[in-house]
Every structure is written in C-alpha cells, then in structure tokens.
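Task: sequence in, structure out. Protein: DNA-binding MarR family transcriptional regulator.
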Amino acid sequence: MTDPRWLDDREFRAWLGYRRMRLLLDAQIARDLTRDSGLSDSDYDVLSALSSKEDRRWRLNELAARMLWSKSRLSRHISRMEERGLVTREECATDARGSVIVLTEGGLCAIEAAAPDHVESVRHHLIDLLTREQIEVLGDIADTVLANLAESEGSR
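Result:
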C-alpha cells in the first residue's frame, strides 16, 4: 500500500476554501431565489432545463440524470411542481413506462420572471467580485475538473 499524498498547506487552504465557498454561495443564492421568486433551487433547475429545450419538454429519466437525482426523487418533485401549475407530465409515446415533463405557460412565466433577479444574485455574490482574469481561471478550473469527472464516469 502506498502512502497517502497528503495536501500541503496551500492545497489544504484551497480545498477547504472551495468547500466552504460552495456551501455558503449555494445557500445564499438559493435564499435569494426563494425570496425573490418563490422558487426553490430545484424548481429553477427543472424550469431552466425545460425552457432550454426548443419543444420545452424532457424525458423524466434524462432530466433526472442531468440533475444527478434518482428518477423517484425527481418524480416526487415534479408532482409538487404540477400542483403549482409549473409543469405537466405526459406519457412517453415510445416507452409506456416512461414520462415526459412539459413546461407549462405558468412555468415559463415563472422562470422568465425569476431569471433577472437570479442572475443579479449570481453577479452580486460571485461574478462581480472577481476580475476578468479570475473569471477566466475559474472557467478553466471548472472545465478541467468536469472533463476529468466525465472521463472517470465514462470508465465505470
């Protein structure tokens, strides 16, 4: 067995800072979103995914994979969103066991109303605090880590 490659002080600072920043930033932006629009972070993720599709519909299992949620968890969340008139659920024409989630006009109005305040929150708590160079580096870091994760996922 090889010895662990412990983090040095700089690496440890970066790792702990990233974890703390991610937790606090996610929590603050979620609070702002709920305060400003009444939408949860999960609601916003579903609505933005649906609104990004030309036909405003997404297979439940594909949406669950995109959100890194189980199908049952997403299905329960979709049921709550249906009650609020944000989405509807249709049977899948090609798979009798599958369903398709469809963005309603109410859901489209909700995401369009929420987006300006949401982006302002993202700017206020992250983007506007950074220099152009820092934003570029952050984007590069995200690309590197995401590519590695996608590669690791593909090798499983």
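The longest helix spans residues 9-37.
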